[in-house]
Amino acid sequence: MRIFRKAIWLLVPALLLARPLPAADAAAVLKAMEDNTNGANAPRDLEADMVMTIQDSGGVRVRELRAWTRNVPDQDDLRVLKFLSPADVRDIGFLVLDQDSMYIYLPEFHRTRRIASSSKKDPFMGSDFSYEDMGTSALSRYYDPKMLKESDDEWQLELLRKPGADKPYARIVLTVGKANTMPRRMELYDASGSLGKVVEETAQPVGKYWVMARIKMTNVKKGTSTVLEMKNIKADQGLRDEIFSERFLKKRGS
């Protein structure tokens, strides 16, 4: 009987170690990451040059853009993208005021069009990013986090879509680096449980901040990929209000 009791007490610590970390830990990691990406520890605003490289069955296409972002505490960030080259996309502009207010300016028609909710899953300018992917909402608004595993240098979280959340991905597996508490990788699953896309992210220091400098989106089903690279990144420039407006989208050569 004593031997049995001793075996039980030896087993208890092992069982405790094998238990997954509580949900509160996953929520804390997600919050810390979001504080760095678009929260209290993120730049007030960013301005950068951007290169978009699309690789698909048609070959490789390269597009140059300029990007502006403003951090709005406890709300969706504001974002503007303007295409600089090649000539067939020059002066096309994209504006995000919140997750439900996205606009695209088409210079060929001299008009700005609001992106309908039904179109947010469509590819953004022929890339592997959707209009939804180009939004700026915090994941914690729409997903419940759970800790999957932890290693010496990273956490891996499972994010499950909250009931009623209008998001295309039912499940996300998110990897966060411990060195800077920034995202490294996301696996995006649809409602059927199939892996649809994989996002690989690289952050770099800009002043006192960590900023996403390279994002690669791979469409697993199509076998295509798009890379967004940020260059000449400037933080806390005090960007003007007029930048985040439909009027600014229509300005040429901005």
- Return the average pLDDT rounded to an integer: 90
Shape from CA axes? globular
CATH architecture label name: Clam
Which secondary-structure class do the elements indicate? mainly beta
- E-strand count: 13
**CATH fold name:** outer membrane lipoprotein receptor (LolB), chain A
Q: Strand share of the residues?
A: 35-45%
Largest sheet: 13 strands, antiparallel
- Supply Rg: 21 Å
Topology as a string of helices (H) and strands (E): HHEEEEEEEEEEEEEH
Short description:
With 254 residues, the protein is mostly beta strands. 15% of the residues lie in helices and 45% in strands.
Topology, pairings included?
Layout: H1 2-18, H2 23-38, E1 45-56, E2 59-70, E3 78-85, E4 93-98, E5 101-106, E6 111-114, E7 143-150, E8 154-161, E9 171-177, E10 182-189, E11 195-206, E12 209-219, E13 224-235, H3 246-249
Antiparallel strand pairs: 1-2, 1-13, 2-3, 3-4, 4-5, 5-6, 7-8, 8-9, 9-10, 10-11, 11-12, 12-13
Keywords:
254 residues, 15% helix, globular, outer membrane lipoprotein receptor (LolB), chain A, mainly beta
Describe this structure as you would to a colleague.
The chain has 254 residues and is mainly β. The chain has one domain: outer membrane lipoprotein receptor (LolB), chain A (Clam), CATH 2.50.20. It has 3 helices and 13 strands; from the N terminus they run ααβββββββββββββα. It has a 13-stranded antiparallel β-sheet, with helices on one face. The longest helix is centred in the first third of the chain and has 17 residues. It is globular and about 50 Å long. The N terminus is likely disordered.
